[in-house]
Structures are given as structure tokens and as C-alpha cells.
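Dear colleagues,

As part of the handover before I leave the project, I'm documenting each prediction I ran so the next person doesn't have to rerun anything. This entry is a single chain, and its sequence is reproduced below.
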Amino acid sequence: MFKKFVFVATAVVLASAGASAQEQVLNLYSARHYSTDEALYTNFTKATGIKINRVDADDAGILARLKAEGAASPADVILLVDASRLWKGEIDGLFQPVKSKVLDAAIPAQFSAKRAADGGVAWFGFSTRARVIVYDKVKVKREDVDTYEKLADPVNKGKLCIRSGSHPYNLSLFGATVEHLGPAKTEAWLQGLVNNMARPPKGGDTDQIKGVASGECGIGVTNTYYLARMMRSSNPEERAVAEKVGVVFPNQASWGTHINIAGGAMARHAKNPANAVKFLEYLASPEAQNYFANGNNEWPTANGVTVENAALKAMSGGTFRSETIPISAVGMNQVKVQQMLDRVGFK
């Protein structure tokens, strides 16, 4: 079950009607809760004169709100941090396909929704993050955790720390695993994860890293940007935590490491569609893409943008093999995965 959602609006009420005829506005519903994104919004307003009014929530809360508001929704742009939720918004008809030569040229096809017959694209991915394994460099052998499958191996019994199985980051990983292993083997694998847990699932990805560093766990699962954030922290204690753990990009010899996509779409009932397209195009610009890379430690998706983030380079060796799997398949597997989680007792 998903938690209750709390929506926080900016001081300005989200309604185009509240703006003067001369004022240009963009009403943004965002699941990106990263303080470094503030520079993105400020610079967009400086460059265009378009004022951003923002509502913050998580992916599920935003989609639920869009459904509840219907045609009365003031939302112009939606930013989500999970590819399967982007897919869900698309199939639920919550997005308005965008036709933009700028976006088509900048964002590779594998990081966006399938192009419609009329050329419209329902959503675009602007950044990615890899789901990796961290481990105790003293007590755990790297070769024992170099694939996702090995997380369920008896050699790792009592060592695994992981957040809730129902969190979108894990649901997407597990949904992808169904495509690779099939339903029966995936359920057996999930049971193996439960059997190997050092403690019941709790906390966020940062807590899993800290658990490994403290000795509570031998291995953990995290998105890369959490680890990179600690590696680059101004707090010496956080840097010390990051230094204590090893990191593995799993399945480099097979299907590749699972990545998730954060992206954006124009809301179906956008009241400021031209401004929405401008903002989405801005997010594909080198300036914005570098904020994703250097501000929030994500890999940019736009063509021609290189990563200069030292932490990302250090943990990945500069490059890694990533999984290539249809986003629609991952999304469609999620109900099936949740049922598996219930059966194996993965909270």
C-alpha cells in the first residue's frame, strides 16, 4: 500500500486564472524532491520570464491527483522519478503527447515513450540512475554479489539490507527481473532475498548504505545517486561511510545493470501548453542536463552531454553495461510483482 501523500504548494496558488494577462506561468507537479533542482527552475524563469508554480508529492500521489482533478487540473508539466510511473501516466491518458523537434533530436528513443503515429511523444526521460549493490569490503567477496541473482544465494544469508519491496525503485527492479528470469524464478528469487535479510526492510537507500558501513548488514541495494551524494558530501562522516563500502554494477556479464528513468510530460489538460513545451525542451538542454549530473548525481540522457561528475565516474569506472528492456514490460509486471511480494512475505 502507498503512504498518504502530502502536497506542498508554493506561495502562489496553482491557477492560471490567478495570474494577470501579462504574466507567463507554468504550473508544475513534481516528484523531484531535490534541493539542487531549485537552480533549474530559477534559471528557466530568468531565461524565459515564465514563473513556475510548483506542487511537490511522490509519483503515486501526483498521478492520483491528476485523476481526481480531471479537466479542472491546473497542471502543465509533470515530473516523475520512476519510468513505470511515467508509463502508467501515459496509459491512463494523463499526458498530452508533445511534438518537438528539439526534444526528438536531444532525447534518444530508449529514454522516451514510443512515438505515436502523428509524431507525438507522451513523455521524455531526462536522467537515469542505476540500481547497484553495495557491500562490506572486509566481510563480503565482490564475486559473491556481482549479479542480482546472487543476492538470494545462501552464501549471503543474514547479510541483506534493502528498503521496502513496494517502493517504486524496487518494484521497477523486480519488474525487470520478471522479464529476465520469468515469473516462477523471480518469485523464488524474491523468497531468497527475504531469507537472506539481516533485518526487515526499512528506511531509504541511504539507510542501506549506512547499514553496510556500520556492520549491521553485509550487502545493500541502492540507487547510485544516493551513494554519489555521500561521496561528494561536505560532511566528513558521510564521506567516511561511503569509503567503507564497495560498489558493484550487477550483471555486467549478462543483461546489464538495471537503470531507472526520471522524466517529464505535458499534462493532458495543460492550460499553458506552449510554456510546458518550452520547459521540457529546457530540461533537455546542456545546462539543465549538467544540473542533473552535477547537482543530483544522475546520468543525463541527452545526446552529446558528457558526465563530469567525479563520483559517478569513480563508482562506475566511467562506463557500464546497462539493461535494455521495454519500459512497458516493467510497468505491466508490477501488479504481478506485488502479488509475489505478498506471497513471500517481502514487506
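The chain has two domains: 8-127+259-306, 129-257+322-344. The first strand starts at residue 8 and ends at 9.

All the best with the project,
I.
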